[in-house]
Structure to design on (214 residues):
């Protein structure tokens, strides 16, 4: 769905193309509804008083839908799936165990393990219970085992959880922040074929190119 410039649009997306907001962009393209984008800059408009009223953390992404604010990528993915149920991007309520499990596994243990490793934060064996995810190797092994058992993270069907989990896997493989494990490359390739993924990627790549050439 093309991005609109209409001020009457009831869905506003606050973003920077060089950020985690790419995850939310992909999800917006999956639900295929009209949205207006507001591009913010690090250290300036992202920290301006006007935006801090929306997200006091001063970071992107954030969406405002019918006056309701949602921040955090995992929350945005889950919210949009529920707000637009016709897209069937969330399983039925009685079939959401894996959906919730792996969505929050990735928002918690997976992201924490990846970030700590990228920052060279060393967790001693006796500290593993404290950090919650145990250790980096175990996190990736657990995710690998899951992705070898099913085509999508919550089963046979693509869901909003795949937008979030798949973004971590795809970026991790591309930038080397996660080690390769069985199932990772196949999963990332499967998701990269989705029209919404391609559409979102095209928008953000164009915005990045425009900024570099400005």
């Amino acid at each position: 769905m093309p991005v609109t410039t209409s001020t009457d649009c009831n869905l506003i997306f606050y973003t920077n193309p060089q950020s985690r907001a790419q995850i939310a962009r992909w999800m917006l393209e999956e639900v295929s509804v009209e949205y207006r984008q507001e591009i913010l800059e690090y250290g300036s408009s992202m920290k301006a008083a006007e935006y801090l009223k929306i997200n006091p953390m001063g970071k992107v992404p954030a969406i405002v839908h019918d006056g309701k604010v949602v921040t955090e990528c995992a929350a945005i993915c889950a919210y949009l799936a529920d707000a637009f149920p016709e897209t069937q991007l969330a399983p039925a309520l009685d079939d959401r165990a894996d959906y919730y499990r792996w969505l929050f596994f990735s928002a918690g243990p997976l992201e924490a393990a990846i970030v700590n490793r990228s920052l060279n934060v060393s967790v001693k064996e006796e500290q593993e219970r404290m950090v919650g995810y145990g250790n980096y190797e175990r996190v990736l092994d657990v995710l690998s085992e899951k992705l070898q058992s099913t085509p999508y993270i919550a089963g046979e069907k693509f869901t909003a959880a795949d937008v979030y989990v798949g973004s971590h896997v795809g970026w991790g493989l591309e930038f080397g922040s996660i080690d390769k494990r069985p199932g990772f490359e196949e999963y990332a390739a499967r998701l990269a074929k989705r029209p919404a993924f391609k559409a979102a990627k095209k928008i953000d790549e164009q915005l990045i190119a425009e900024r570099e050439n400005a």
